[in-house]
Design a protein that fits this description.
Number of domains: 1
Strand order of the largest sheet: 6-5-14-15-16-13-17-20
Number of helices: 11
Helix content: 25-40%
Strand content: 25-35%
Structural class: alpha+beta
Length: 409
């Protein structure tokens, strides 16, 4: 149950009660900032999961949330990449083990609904955090920052507004941030399947000409599916009965997990991208899908959003320690620059990987096959790629480092 509005004005208002917004609100409140979360947390069982990579798990543990989430998550101790493009230069399957870089697991896979519901439980028990169920109706710029108008008519003018309100962000619109969007001629089919054989905590990604086909472990003999394919194929798959779809998935997976059974409904995710010209300005900062949208490839979307939150936390805690305003223009500019580098780098890598699969060109196939063979053989390079795939080594926010800086007292 949400707390009533207290008389003490909020230092920070977080707009958006999805996973990123919830994590942000919990983080800031635990650091001693009076925080208002605007929006109603609601996890929907839609067949989608999120692979939380090691830095994200470390961060969620630091803010006191991982203990609540862990029982619903499955470890990913092994990642297997299979070239199923039919290329003449297809290399053997490439397998990465978390133990090679000193980790028990690359990360953990959890259903979106369980993630949001678990974070909401933590948020409701967090001191200095007020949840306002009324959604944001409008955000307007004024001399000192942003004025927020809620659907129930209340208005707020906090020193710092954090926009975690998704790809149609009202906060971003109020900041007048330039946005670039793009689409792919692909659709992602998502679902959860039970299967006859154990997954052995292994995430398997088949690279096909239509895009990646990925099975990620869940607790028990269950896995989540992200099948990126042409729109006509996605439409055909959606029209299938549950048994027909399960058989199609088993065939595509080369029966590696045995007979499959669909759990619940399958969903469709548009293959789109979004990037912003800046992450902050005029008393506000953008995090998560308000600042970047990724296609569901490479487990980058939410992990990048949580890095946004952890990086913003470092900046505002540092500003407070220096006696500066938490939305100090210099601090917000530093936050924006760092996040732009990280987001653009990840965008470029994911975009290049996806487009390389779609192009049936022998020279490109040769380069991709040679790269996979090199990674298989060159230990130091292999370990570097694994580490960078999880998170950037340079500039990693303090709460995502295993030796984390902890919370301010």
């Amino acid at each position: 149950m949400a707390e009533p509005m207290n008389e003490r004005p909020a230092h920070i208002a977080v707009v958006g009660a999805g996973a990123t917004g919830l994590a942000a609100a919990i983080t800031f409140a635990r650091d001693g900032f009076d925080t208002v979360l605007i929006g109603r947390p609601s996890g929907q069982a839609d067949g989608r999961t999120v692979a939380l990579l090691d830095g994200s798990v470390t961060f969620l543990a630091a803010i006191g949330a991982w203990r609540q989430l862990a029982p619903a998550a499955a470890p990913m101790t092994c990642m297997r990449i299979v070239d199923a493009t039919g290329s003449l230069f297809a290399p053997p399957p490439l397998t990465f083990h978390a133990s090679e870089i000193g980790l028990d697991a690359f990360g953990y896979n959890i259903e979106n609904a369980a993630l949001v519901d678990g974070l909401a439980q933590v948020a409701r028990a967090t001191p200095r955090l007020t949840i306002r169920d009324a959604p944001l109706a409008a955000a307007d710029s004024h001399a000192a920052g942003l004025r927020l108008t809620l659907a129930d008519g209340d208005t707020l003018e906090p020193p710092l507004v954090v926009g975690a309100d998704g790809r149609q962000s009202l906060v971003r619109h109020a900041l007048d941030v330039a946005v670039r969007t793009w689409t792919y001629r692909q659709t992602a089919l998502t679902a959860i399947f039970a299967h006859a054989r154990p997954h052995r905590d292994t995430s398997t990604e088949l690279h096909t000409r239509g895009g990646p086909f990925t099975l990620v472990p869940l607790p028990g003999r269950r896995s989540s599916l992200v099948w990126v394919c042409p729109p006509y194929q996605a439409r055909r798959l959606r029209r299938m009965t549950a048994d027909e779809l399960a058989s199609a998935v088993e065939r595509q997976a080369q029966s590696m997990l045995g007979a499959m059974t669909l759990e619940g409904h399958c969903g469709v995710v548009p293959m789109q991208g979004l990037s912003v010209a800046r992450f902050a300005g005029h008393g506000a900062a953008l995090v998560g899908e308000a600042a970047h949208v990724f296609p569901p490839i490479g487990a980058q979307g939410l992990n990048l959003g949580l890095r946004d939150v952890a990086a913003l936390r470092d900046v505002i805690v540092d500003a407070r320690s220096r006696g500066q305003a938490i939305a100090d223009a210099t601090a917000m500019s530093r936050f924006s620059r760092g996040r732009l580098v990280d987001a653009r780098t990840r965008t470029g890598v994911i975009d290049a990987l996806n487009r390389s699969l779609l192009l049936d060109m022998l020279p490109l196939d040769l380069v991709r096959g040679a790269a996979m063979l090199t990674l298989d053989a060159a230990g130091p390079l292999r370990r570097l790629v694994m580490r960078e795939g999880l998170a950037p080594r340079l500039g990693l926010p303090s709460l995502m480092r295993r030796a984390g800086a902890g919370f301010a007292s």
